[in-house]
Specification:
Elements (H helix, E strand, L loop, with lengths): L9 H22 L2 H17 L3 H7 L5 H25 L8 H18 L3 H23 L4 H21 L27 H23 L2 H11 L1 H6 L4 H27 L9 H14 L4 H17 L7 H15 L8 H19 L8 H4 L1
């Protein structure tokens, strides 16, 4: 086996430079007191509230409307990434069909609103429930599979939902559905085509999803998910009902995906099966892995970058996707565990690297000792 990068090599120095700040922030956060954390929470919330300011937008998005970009794709990607992080980051299950739950939430609002006159808020609850039920329906027969097999099944489920939407005239078929109802006026604010109210709506949903996810992570459920992710066989031997907790992870992740679909469809007015391609699932998975799987701040940062960078590079015209892809490749080469990984994830990556390095130097058990060979 070829040895890893030498200490002091350019690649190793670049990795240290990229990872140093992220590790410093993560370690400080782990040791921060309760009041320090609440101050940070408050400052971040105030920053998010002030984010649509034109002063910020003039730098962040000189080529497109900044407020629209904050709602979609940035806000939508963050909400979807929080849901997928429960499945991938906490429970360790590879889901390549997450876009299906996003589509189920969107079609719930579109179908019930257009065909039956349902309003937004009751449909929001129904969309989350239907998405969660869909997660159970997908998970019940498939969660006994692992790894690549589970990934292939979930990918197929996403394509089944999209193709079913194309071939079902009752929900618009390939033509789609329009006009999807907007949310009703709330506190004197009108939800029409102005993206600002929708940004604050998705921001409120993101805050609720973060609180819910963090509470789960620190509960008995979160500890069970961690045990399953680390070693499912060992967790089952220790008495953890692994199938039940994996099914719960799928249902909760699907519920948050359905929530994102309902909020998103209320703004766009028109939806069609082409809005829900496989590449969207891959994009959200890339956001989770780029930011740091299993770590909420990292997942949010990763989803923000995935949503923002392509628009920031729009000045490169036809080459902007190439530049965006190159930036992702370089970042993952320098920081494979993600920008802000959890301490556990960093330890796993370090242990794996150390094991590989040590494995390269372990002599053949049948070989003679070094002194004898000499």
């Amino acid at each position: 086996m070829s040895p890893g990068p030498r200490i002091g090599s350019p690649l190793e120095r670049a990795r240290s430079a990229v990872g140093g700040l992220g590790d410093t922030v993560r370690d400080w956060w782990a040791q921060a007191s309760r009041w320090q954390r609440w101050v940070v929470y408050l400052l971040l919330l105030l920053l998010a509230i002030a984010a649509p300011s034109p002063v910020i937008g003039s730098f962040m998005s000189p080529y497109t409307d900044w407020t629209s970009l904050l709602f979609n794709p940035i806000g939508t990607y963050i909400l979807l990434a929080i849901g997928l992080n429960i499945v991938v980051g906490h429970a360790g299950l590879l889901d390549l069909g997450y876009v299906a739950f996003f589509a189920i939430g969107a079609y719930t609002l579109a179908y019930l609103g257009v065909k039956h006159g349902f309003t937004f808020w009751p449909t929001l609850i129904l969309g989350m429930v239907l998405a969660a039920v869909s997660g159970v329906i997908l998970g019940a027969p498939t969660l006994r599979l692992r790894g690549d097999y589970l990934a292939i099944v979930t990918l197929g489920f996403g394509e089944i939902v999209r193709i079913t939407a194309i071939n079902t005239n009752e929900i618009g078929g390939a033509r789609g559905l329009t006009p999807v109802p907007h949310p009703p006026n709330l506190l004197g604010v009108e939800f029409l085509l102005d993206p600002l109210p929708y940004y604050y709506l998705v921001l409120a949903m993101i805050v609720l999803a973060i609180v819910f996810s963090l509470r789960l992570e620190r509960s008995r459920v979160g500890r069970a998910w961690t045990a399953i992710r680390e070693d499912e066989d060992a967790a089952e031997l220790m008495g953890v009902p692994t199938f039940k907790f994996k099914l719960l992870a799928f249902a909760i992740g699907a519920m948050i995906g359905g929530l994102a679909g309902v909020v998103w469809s209320g703004k766009v007015i028109f939806i069609a099966p082409t809005n829900f391609p496989f590449i969207l699932s891959a994009t959200i998975l890339a956001a989770v892995l780029l930011g740091g799987s299993g770590n909420m701040p990292g997942v949010i940062v990763g989803a923000f970058l995935i949503g923002w960078l392509p628009e920031r590079f729009r000045g490169f015209a036809d080459y902007r996707i190439l530049v965006f892809g190159a930036a992702l490749v370089i970042m993952m080469a320098l920081r494979p565990q993600g920008l802000l990984p959890s301490r556990r994830r960093s330890a796993e990556m370090a242990e794996h690297s150390a094991g590989s390095a040590m494995g390269a130097e372990v002599a053949d058990p049948g070989a003679a000792p070094a002194e004898v060979r000499k």
